Amino acid sequence: MARSSLRYQPKPANDDALRLAMIRLAKQYGWYGYRKVTALLRMEGWQVNHKKVERLWGEEGLQLGVGFSRFRFTGVVCKRVWNPAFTR
Predict the structure, then answer these.
(1) What's this model's pTM, rounded to 2 decimal places?
(2) Which 3 state secondary structure label does DSSP give 19?
(3) Which of 21, 41, 54, 69 has CB atoms 3.0–4.6 Å from 46's, for a disulfide?
(4) pLDDT tens-digit map of 31-68
């Protein structure tokens, strides 16, 4: 076994302040996902990786709300009938 792996001491991660900031931003901006929240955290001065935010986002159970579609499919795509003589 390598000497470097025996002497490695992992630093304890204290992400409580980051979690609170994420939850605050998720409540304030309800439709934002972890990517936009990551951008907002960086604008606030946090030096945070998007992968860490994504991991904490899932651990906290944060998710987007059920949205709505702007466009509704009515079943009719095109009402025009193309004339084959016109397309030649």
Answers:
(1) 0.62
(2) helix
(3) 41
(4) 889 999 999 999 999 999 999 999 999 899 887 655 55
Yes or no: say if 21 and 44 are a contact pair by the CB < 8 Å rule.
Answer: yes
Instruction: Please give the DSSP secondary-structure letter assigned to residue 29.
Output: S
Rg (CA), the chain: 24
CA angle 76, 77, 82 (to 5 degrees): 110
pLDDT of residue 18: 95
The amino acid sitting at 68 is: F
**Three-class DSSP labels, the chain:** CCHHHHHCCCCCCCCHHHHHHHHHHHHHCCCCCHHHHHHHHHHHCCCCCHHHHHHHHHHHCCCCCCCCCCCCCCCCCCCCCCCCCCCC
Q: How far apart are CA 56 and CA 50, in angstroms?
A: 10
Contacts (Cβ under 8 Å, ≥6 apart) of 80: none
- What integer best gives the mean pLDDT of the chain? 82
